[in-house]
């Protein structure tokens, strides 16, 4: 990546145009870190960067006060946001009483505050795994996404707003491949340590980035580190976002840190797999926390996939497990209900698809809808996915270096 970045800078400095991918398909065809992660820009993001917070990693939080649309929405909910203390480090808090249903200290998923929806911490359908990955889009995820496509396997992808803006074509691939996209906040900080405005902005701008790039508005989010309490749940719910947690953690993200090794992570996968085989999910399914963070985490996902497919009857994105057939605000993309999915997979893998090819709502992209079948061991392969017109973006040669263009 260093070499590639230098190359682009040199070219830009001499007013030559870097050869760069401009479409989702071009990006999806690349393999290897240097090629996949070479910086590029597409007008969709480079020309709208000033509508977003800075893209410097993990430090900035959005300021909604300079954004009339965001601020109007924030103002409309601000007065009703519960008056729950910000969880500054070192705060005195009784995890047993747990008045705020603060997951970080108690794994609480049933809000104490009336009117809040429960967190989703397990797939509701029996013998079913809600399959998903945090921290994307990873710039070098093509091998992993190729693997998922080869198995006709859909997943739920929890995307970080900054990464969506850095790697918009990679984000588009998730939509094109029929995965479900959820919000994983803008900067991946601890949400309960943020002010109301900051927490709102983390969700708002990630939704906006995903909408800009894919034409789709998510209705689900996962708090980084699981850090959520009733104040944050309330803000998310006002933005029409379901809160998704987990009950199993692979700790794949922590490999090499804090004594976590490859063996630890494999052992965590094995725990889930063995629990499934032992019938622990016969009345309700599971969700495990895994990541598309790097080669190791994606490699573990691939190497454990056969065992997961064997241990669970159904491995599906959460939309399918929850019977949420239209998991975006836009209704042109549909997922099968759980019953449709299971019938589909039982009937010899016959495919069903829908395609409407309606506009994604952004000025320069459109995509077709897909029926997102997923793999199950009933047939090995489920219905094929039919996509409408592939993403078409205004073609322009990228001259901007990703990241640098968004510092407005
Ligand atoms: Zn994360």
From TrEMBL:
Lineage: Eukaryota, Fungi, Dikarya, Basidiomycota, Agaricomycotina
Subcellular location: Cell membrane
GO molecular function, one term: chitin deacetylase activity
Keywords (A to Z) from UniProt: Carbohydrate metabolism, Cell membrane, Cell wall biogenesis/degradation, Chitin degradation, Cobalt, Glycoprotein, GPI-anchor, Lipoprotein, Membrane, Polysaccharide degradation, Signal
InterPro entries reported for this sequence: Glyco_hydro/deAcase_b/a-brl, NODB_dom, Polysacc_deacetylase_ArnD
EC number in record: 3.5.1.41
Top-rank EC class of the record's enzyme: hydrolase
Name under which the protein is recorded: chitin deacetylase
Main location: membrane
Organism domain of life: Eukaryota
Spans annotated as Disordered: 346-381
Domain NodB homology per the UniProt entry, residue ranges: 127-327
Pfam families: Polysacc_deac_1 (PF01522)
GO cellular component, one term: side of membrane
Polar residues composition-biased segments: 367-381
